[in-house]
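Q: Study each token:
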Amino acid sequence: QVQLAESGGGLVQPAGSLRLSCAASGSIFSINTMYWYRQAPGKQRELVAFVTSGGRTNYADSVKGRFTISRDNAKNSVYLQMNSLKPDDTATYYCNAVAKTTSSSNYRSYWGQGTQVTVSS
């Protein structure tokens, strides 16, 4: 099994910054793409950004130019640097990783428990 643990959420004022971290642990053979999603109250979960094992990144239009996703393959970790935060960014942020536990297993999707980000004055 693979476990994901997010950290770094909290309360921040508009225009402020936060850095989210997500560390994968457990029986990991390899990790393919890593994602950040978010879900605001009463809304569907949405993709924020992803980074492939090769370092290619992609972002939701709503966060382009403000958020930066990165990963450290040696630490099985992914990060989300969030700048110029807006109240609309308030949500629970979830880490997701597509990983395999052995060389012969299939890739599976794993989720963290989420970390709350609140942007408010």
About this structure: The chain has no helices and eleven strands. Residues 61 and 107 are 28 Å apart (CA to CA). The first strand starts at residue 2 and ends at 7.
